[in-house]
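Table S5 (text form). Sequence records supplied for joint modeling of the two-component complex.
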Amino acid sequence: MAIQSASPTPSMFRKKSTPVLNTAASYLSAVSEADARARAPRGTPNSTPALSLSSSVTSSSEDTVLHEREELNSDGLAYPKVPPTSEQVFTTVHAEFGHCANDSYRFTSRYNPARPLKAGEQDPPYYILLTTYISYILVILFGHLRDFFGKRFKATDYRHLLAHGGYAALNSDFDSFYTRRLKLRIDDCFSHPVTGVPGRTIVLLDRYSPNHNKSILLTGGKTRGLNVSSYNYLGFAQSKGACADASAESIRRYGISACGSRREGGTSDLHIQAEALVARFLGMEDSLISSMGFATNSTVIPALVSKGCLVISDELNHASIRFGVRLSGANVRMFKHNDVKSLEALLREVISQGQPKTHRPWKKILVIVEGLYSMEGTLVELPAIMELKKKYKFYLFIDEAHSIGAIGPHGRGVCDYYDVNPRDVDILMGTFTKSFGAAGGYIAGNRSLIDRIRLSGHAGAYAEAMAPPILTQVVASMASIMGVTLPRLDKPTSSTRSLLTRHSDSTLNVIAEEAPAWRGTALAAWLPTWMPTPQSMCDGSDSQMRLRRLAFNARYLNRALRKLGFITYGSADSPVVPLLLFHPGKMAVFSRLMRTRPTPIVVVVVAYPATSLVTSRVRFCLSASHTKEDIDTILVACDEIGDLLDLKQGVGERWPLQEIMARAVELVHMEES
Amino acid sequence: MNTTTTALEPLFTLLSQSYTTLETTFSKIPGSAVVARYVRSSHQNDPGRTLLEVILILFAIRTLLQSRTRADNSGKHFIKFDEKEVDELVDEWTPEPLGAPLDEREQAEIDNSPVIVGPVGPKPKLSNGKTVTNLASYNFTGLAGNETIKERSIDALVKYGLGSCGPPGFYGTQDVHMQLEKDIADFLGTEAAIIYAQAFSTISSVIPAFCKRGDIIIADRGVNFAIQKGLQISRSTIRWYDHNDLKSLEQVLESTEKERRKKKGPLTRRFIVTEGIFDHDGAMSDLPKLVELKQKYKYRLILDESVSFGSIGRTGRGLTELYNVPASQVDMLVGSLANGLTACGGFCAGSHIVVNHQRINGTSFVFSAAMPPLLSVAASEGINILRSTPSILSTLQENIRAIRSILDRVDCIAIPAHPASPMIHLYVRLPSPTHLLPSAALASPALSSASGRLSNPSSPHPRDPEIFDCDLEDGILQDIVDEVLAQGVMVTRAKRLRGQELTEVRPSIRLAATSALSKKDCEKAASVVKTAFIKVVGRHRK
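The corresponding structure-token record, covering 1215 residues in total, follows.
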């Protein structure tokens, strides 16, 4: 285990038998001390690197090109702690995609109808909620005080908040107050610039602020940290490997841009090929690709619904869906997050009542849900919604921005996970930003519907088409997940065939025979002829490894955090794991302490307005590129910081850290109790 | 009687004891004295008051506990049904199909849109095997397929991988994004800039980031679709002025000011929203006059330079360079990196305050993944090339002149575009009774003010709208496009979402000039377009 040898932690971090520190005063001083150390600028010549008693961490100024850096690897980020044996051949860069040969660290993400996973939403003790409110009130009070005096005595600094010279203030509402007075205090935890590949590790550009975050300056130094912040579920954020090679080749062949909108001459053969492949991947008739994920929702929904239609939307749906619905002019009703009963009650009401005032029947009702809610980690209750759909005849739109690729035994999203026929869903939407390591999004459905969207959606006429290298990344990563069946007549393919038959542990062989059924492999003819198709891509071993590693990592971290006593939200199969912090102040401290550990860990902390005011949280985004040791590193860190910040408020059975790490495989395979 | 009292005695003692305990505990709570005093003073021997306060408190608790998603079944329009009736209504209800099926013409459009095989450039190959001259793709500066850009992009791919895998706020901001923002700001001469992942989603996010309910926006009647959507989302009060008519703008500014003075409302944010070169027809705004007006009336200017950035001015800086107006005079300068720089995405340049505000309030910036690093590298390199090679823009202008010189004086073609605009819209001019407007109307859009009548500023429709037969002209133009394609030149109709645009846009063929073609090729292509126009319009007359 990497962490024990490499992290001689300062005494205050040492695991205490009880989470309670002696007195409140010592607790507070410990927090402030740790926080002060974490906030100190790193990499500046005069300061010592925070928390680094071992010399290893000082390698923070390494270049992103790995082979150029001098060897200092006690944190295990750039190279594996245990060197591979001669039989193990890894083709990936460890810093981008971790080496893990242990086959027991694998799992298959699949819905078990007999023992459905419970989305564990525990409420914190009341004192936590109370103190959270108090801390918000305090900060808001101070903010108003400072604004009050600032506007009177330092008018130049507040010029943009006041009317001047006949111009009204540019931004003066609560949003602006929140940004200046609350978010600014912890701005060092947001928008951190990075460089290099956002893979298993990520390189942060060090920064410091001389004036309490008013301006944040780069020091010029860099820190490599373990990355649990990027949406890189299947680990396709790679600068080396089949996908990157294919993209590079497409730049050489196609250039950078499609030069126009899809309907005004911006359509190339790559677009056609990619759309066909996406449709086959999803098991739908046809699909349409859009060059931006956000715009996929915001430009397609207006083509589906209009005045006289009703959109029923989960209350926690993404901003892009709300944006699209607002543009469409349709009526909107919301139901309680992921609550099928609330949805049914609402459906009964709206169908029986009809349109407001006129009581005319709705033209159509579109229910919009997300497959995996990225802030909550909850999976949509698809089987129950499909039942409702039969009865209430609404149209179903599933936004699979996070679930596509990341969920299901074949990575085909929630339909695959629940074993629901995707053709029973009217519209599947998703993005390529997350699991596929590309950009943009797709919309899939039956052919006439997609053609309608091509014509009536905003993007087709006005928005730029997707760029060729991005399309190629989509095609290559998707083919990699599907596996590729090479044509049988094409040159002797003995090597491929032997590989195909060798993999008996998966269902790949069966599927290969009946291709091109849903969840089947891709035929080589579907791909661009110039695209290199290495063996690991063809036989599906690469995709199986990715899918099963991700499923293992997701379950392991989810369950381990609960066993440690943390309050987490969502399904155990979700690769997004939100850990509840509640207090706004703890967000900053948590983020800083994680970032400044001997093995720095890069996490995302989120608060209002992305979540409700009291449920500030840290969000771990797992990836197939993480190894079991990486998850252990995260757990050790969470355990220490959790004690320090009094975060272990969950109920239920607890295991000590060592036991969790030792019994990881058992923990992952455990049935839901 | 006595027995019952004695039997109840322990109970009474218990009650009085617990009352005393309660009282002492209550008095121990800090601030309890204040509460007690308040209750006492508010009671004032009047139980009615206490009752009222209790009801108020209960009401407050009820309001707080009420779910946001609760069904609104208290209204007077709510009809009560029992379960069986609801079931019947559910059974009865039949929804319309989700997407209306395509008609023949729409299907033909889907089936016949050209597909480019291989790279886009001045002479791409189409899926039917033909190599054509390309006047359809946005490649004004000829940077598509530029070898340096390709090389730099591959370098970026090797260093950063492809996707940025996160929104800018959550570790999606790469150093190359910051570099591009700096490059744009330096290039234009503004304090800062912010990049969005898609050009189309840029302005529809910038406008609502600043303009809220109650603010005033004065917009051109001919603004593009993305701006229209931004205006719709903003929920601001919108006033319209006649397309590209600054006299009309001044009148609207004046009348809005009067209205405000009359109402004595508070000072609200006020914006003028318009385009540099209009996407709808290629007309160009008179920027100096616009800036003068905005300063006079104290408005902020949101200028969409999606077409003009990278295509106008000595080095492609857009309208500000052409008119020699400092870019800092434009409060929010929005542009596209997809058109002029042949990369992807859009930007908004302005002061630090303007830019930083969008980093939290620009919806499509905050809630979308950052642009892939290699595309920002491509855009940065594009700016570099434009900066160091002014000949690109002069070639482009020569090509525009070559095309215009052939198409300008053709009877059946009307060109609303500015002579320097690289985006050239061609209207078909039919001498039939369906088209009654005098030809001069097309050349000078300042028709309504010239006639002295004002349009209603609250309506997006002008007082004297152009009269044209949309389907007829679309059909003719499509025939022309097909004819031109058969002769080896690719052009396109300007595709519009009929019915979704605020005002019906006149059908046109949109040419995009490029510096990558030689002057001779441009002339040849323009002649092909001219011949096709004459041929198809002539055929139509018969």
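Note: The domain at 104-131+391-434+469-541 of chain B is CATH 3.90.1150.10 (Aspartate Aminotransferase, domain 1).
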